[in-house]
Protein 1
Amino acid sequence: MAFTVGGITFIAFLIIAFLKKYRLSKKILIGTWIIYHTFVVAVTFFPLILDSTLVSPSPVELTPLHTTRLFISCWWRGLISWQYMTVQIFGNILMTIPFGIMLPFLYKDKIKTFYISMALLFPLLIEWFQLLLGILTKTMYRTFDVDDILLNFLGVIIGYGIYCLMPKKIKKFFRT
């Protein structure tokens, strides 16, 4: 479903970009933004599980680093694989790095507090929508976890750091 909606959005954007004769840099940037968000939606909300037996024991986790410590502890005791632990922890960081890179290209000349606010708002919205989805489907397969927000925030900050280190030539191409 996410890829269908994302694909339709991407095709609509291509038509608009062609009709309005957008610059190549704008086409690449906005097209990438649409594809990126399609993947984020696919990873964070799907599959849509409607089996009420898959309810999480704790649909809301507000203790910072509790889930991260739990994953590491379970891996250490051999209860989960290192691959699963790595995906759960580093996947949350890696997922939001592109957001941190693309945000300054899309919103030029904003103050740093804007980027920090967006770095917090984006993961918070993901978690709130996961909680809302769990409530609406009565499954709580996806949970609201403060660790995800912290790890996603870290990913956005890393992405912004990568943007800051990019050569001026790349920044100029996307800003003209």
Protein 2
Amino acid sequence: MLNPVVAIDGPAASGKSTVARGLAARLNFTYVDTGAMYRAFAWLALERGVDPADRVAVSGLVERVPLALTISGGSVQTRLDGRDPAPFIREERVNAAVSKIAAVPELRERLVIEQRKLRNLAPLVMEGRDIGTVVFTDTVFKFFLDADPVIRARRRQRQGQSDVVAARDQADAARAVAPLTKAADAVLVDATDDDADTIIGKILQICRARGLSAAKVDAL
């Protein structure tokens, strides 16, 4: 029997990372940040002098570099060629490059394969931009978090990141492969005003109604 997956998609600074991490903790599921994987490759490309927008060069990088995804402490860690990119993936240069490299089909294909394998290891709360539309289209636990663009921009600033939310939205929605969009059967959650705990509570109620691991949910 396949492990359950809760898919949480949404644009930059919509609150999906905070909500997904908290939801995973409440359910005792593994938290998966797929955006961190794309950021890891963006960082590696920059480290090796590869243009993140150069499909041929990035494809070569994807083919050559060993990728390892491991579960530890309730979340997934990414290693590229044995290195841990986590301390570097929020750098400004990575912020500017991630949408470019995420549009490379060969990278997306490889990461989707690896992301799907994680389901064999543990129940997941996976967040990103194509989880419900591409990675786990079969899950009935799909959510799309969104918030007012002005609020999202302020959140980014408070996080010490200056990437332009509107530009990220446009780039993610316009890419030819797996564009950012709400799955037809996903529940739209407005995260403009509610805090993370309130949103998590709403999602848990919906998950319970849809039959997610009743013993776990009801025990919360």
Protein 3
Amino acid sequence: MSYVDELFSVAGKTALVTGAATGIGRMAATALVRAGATVLIASRKGEDCTRVAGELNGLGGSGRAEGFAGDVSSEAGIAALVAEVKARTERLNILINNAGISWGAPLESFPYHAWAKVFGVNVTAVFHLTRELLPLLDAAASDADPARVINLGSVMGTQPLADDAYSYSASKAAVHHLTRILAIEFAARRITVNAFAPGPFQSRMTAFATATEQQARHVGDHVPLRRIGAPDDIAGATLYLCSRAGSYITGAILPIDGGQSVQHGLTLFKE
């Protein structure tokens, strides 16, 4: 095995990725399977997860995927998901809290119930699922190779921008702060906790704006690097944080946004 292969290896690790049937979750799961990990894929639509697991297993990677239903939108759903995971493995090296929802509406008509719904999946579930899976993360953790938790934040949680998704933006800022809190609390357990803060990628959540290549190019034109994100951008970040290469990183909010998190419209003296 080459130096680079060893440094970024996730071979033999077991991961759970929530909401992994589509979008960024699927991109992360694909990278882990292709790189040799066993990846449990869960979302509300179990049949989609089973199908995606089959597709990932057909890519010829050295890992494997298992797909099943898992709903993180309620306490009972989280308990059922934890039981399902514990029935399949005694240790969890990697947990990627990717499942998320959004809601868009004008300020004047933004519904009260949308806050509880969005925060329930995007923030509350991240806390409760991670806590309930701590015994499995503890079982995999060591000084040399900590267990890893990656939470899905967003560039919208780093910038004061709503685009009518008020609860989503606020929830992702909360995810970033929770990530830092858990990073310091879990450090003694040898569990790292980091977050991705992606910019625009093609996914079911962003399909309204990125579904066609023309739409994707239009959105990409507003990004400093002049494109939207690609699957390899998520793959690289995932393998970095989950391998020996990232074992000393915790509490980081990693921008995967083509420069959007440092983009602003401020000008002082230069026209």
Protein 4
Amino acid sequence: MFIPTNYYVYLRVGSFGGTEAELSRVLGPLGQSNQFVVPLGRFLISNHLMRTHYRYVPLTHAGHPVTVQLAGQETLRLTMLGIAGQDAGKVYLNYLLFVPVFTSPEPAVLSIRREANRVVLSWPAGPWRLLRSAGLNSSPWVEVTEGMVEAGGQRSLSVVPTEPAFYRLVAL
């Protein structure tokens, strides 16, 4: 079972000759001989000089790494390419490694303005935590959890400054 996200896929393989393997998604009908598959990319396996010299080979398309969107139960097929009967003997397949691709949200702008004796901070609503510190280097950063207001896709915090404070946003 896959957590719904994008993945980089690596084939751990040893080889004593170069060849290729193709990874495909099986769409159906499952358990039948006439399955429909969609190619996801290829593993370009180089010569590792020995079948026991294992390396991680990335899934690629046109020489560029591929991300594969997977969710829930999936059926994937690995097919050896190259010269039938000859290239298959060049490699020792070990396993497939699926590495989740976590993307950071777009950077948010923390706006700061003065209104009378108050300082108002505002930023886009989303996956952000507001942190506060008394100093940039030596003081700990503490999450601000009270006093925030959300309206119109923006969050804001209005404070009366009593001492120097530094603020920053971090992604959840």
